[in-house]
């Protein structure tokens, strides 16, 4: 099964299309999609794409004391106690029924926990409180499902000049040299750069070691292997996958790229795709290195799914989840 090309944007509607990477959706995910679509159709929420609410920097009905209960819920999810996590989120919403951020986060984590009644309840109430945020939350859930269904793929994507190749960094050695995992990612990116010779390349990663950032080390490796320096754009602030997605999405827009092929390791690709989709990048390909490829072909386990949902909630940039 092929997943849709997705792009989430605060200023543009949700878009669909044909994706170039091989994607497989599990029965459980298909069930959740079917139930959610039925709910949205019943409530009039699937009547068509709407413009997402622009990010003005202001929180959505957030109150200063709401962060602590949310992080308490997050800790319960981290430790496998979904029941307590859901109870924390329910108390959070009950304490302020008009808190749109709390409703959005409860919807996301109810989806993670497979609690369909809580998901439906949260989305209905969120639609009444803040339709724009409800639309964005639906898009986040669709992005998560697409990411969960993404398979590691060592084959390059054919792309043109408006598609960027995004290479995610990995921690450097103390002397600033590359670890083998990062070299593997760069080898995959080098192959992708040959398949898409007109595509700009973004290397993203900060975390300097010995005065060298991951992005600078990646640029040096690529140029040493024959990639023209003029193709390479450096994003050297990011310290996490969430920041990779947020900072690179803006850089892609600045250089005129309208989509991206994300390049990373097989055990990282699903979380990375989720973060870039939620950040607003239209992902048209997901290429990985070869190591651990076979072991990452099955659907993600609980720990991996937890990381995907946690990162997506953070990339969503709601004040309580940052």
> What is the total tally of β strands?
7
**Approximate shape:** elongated
State which percent range the strand residues make up. 5-15%
Arithmetic mean of pLDDT:
83
Order of helices and strands: EEHHHHHHEHEHEHEHEH
Major sheet? 5 strands, parallel
User: Which class do the helix and strand fractions yield?
Assistant: alpha/beta
Helical residue percent band: 40-55%
Which strand order does the major sheet show? 5-4-3-6-7
* Radius of gyration (Å): 19 Å
- Uncertain spans: 8-64
Taking the alpha carbons of the first and last residues, their distance comes to: 34 Å
Number of helices, counting only DSSP H or I runs of 4 residues or more: 11
Task: Name a few traits of the molecule.
single chain; 322 residues; alpha/beta; five-stranded parallel beta sheet; two-stranded antiparallel sheet
Structural account:
- It contains eleven helices and seven strands.
- It is an alpha/beta fold and 322 residues long.
- It has a five-stranded parallel beta sheet with strand order 5-4-3-6-7, sandwiched between helices. It has a two-stranded antiparallel ribbon with strand order 1-2.
- Strand 3 (163-168), helix 7 and strand 4 (201-204) form a beta-alpha-beta unit.
- Helix 4 runs parallel beside helix 6, helix 4 packs antiparallel against helix 11 and helix 6 packs antiparallel against helix 11 (302-315).
- The radius of gyration is 19 Å and the shape is elongated.
